[in-house]
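Sequence in, structure out.
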Amino acid sequence: MPELPEVEALRGFLEERLVGRGAARIHLTAFSALKTFEMPLESLLGLEISAVSRHGKFLDVDAQGTHLCFHLARAGWVKWHDVAPTGIPKPGKGPLSLRVVLDDDAGFDLTEAGTQRKLALHVVADPQDVPAIATLGPDPLSEAFTREVFGQILDAAGKAQIKGVLRDQRTIAGIGNAYSDEILHVARLSPFKPVASLDDEECTTLYAALRSTLAGAVERASGLAAKELKDDKRSHLRVHGRAGEACEVCGTTIAQVSFADSSLQYCPGCQTGGKVLADRRLSKLLK
């Protein structure tokens, strides 16, 4: 799933190519992806694009106050065309969900792999009209996201497990499964450690790990073409997606906990005192 660093890189990529242009043609091929109906997709036609913004994992293409907001979900992506295909795509054929053709004949596709169609499109006058945007927590890379603010978030989380808190979009915007694994590895914390058990030093270490991990990923991804971002992300992950490999910090074999529809990875040597987490949903450290 694209997370904050990749979505921010896509924002910059699209901003460079869209601002000052207008949408000449729009083709929706996955009708279930469109979640709003008060403003039709056609209301974007002919309007000059003035900005591309990010709200957590949402991208927001602003065309003179009409906003195309979209969330790429787990398997969605952006495909750029220097010269967009001229034919009219058929609904339900392949991974294409939406195609936007600009007034200079360039354009972009929103695609989604697999059978679980969760990519979401919204056409709104105000991004806050999208419920999932309106309820987002603070952006962890904003200047306002201070150690004090992070402390207040942790205080409110109580006994919740730290990985779940990091992933909750209503608490902190933009972090998903992969980067929560990475942040916790840098902070040397178990993903199942209750927030209430963190001492002040651990909270400060976690805050620093969160900011440095995300900022580093954003810096690496900045300027990359959309087609390069996925491989760049995978090549720089330290634990996520690397079960069975040696930890680059301590050499311990990276372990995994599997759930019904996802998994997490961690280093027992760095994060759990050498103990292995039980591979079940309600995991506890093996005695």
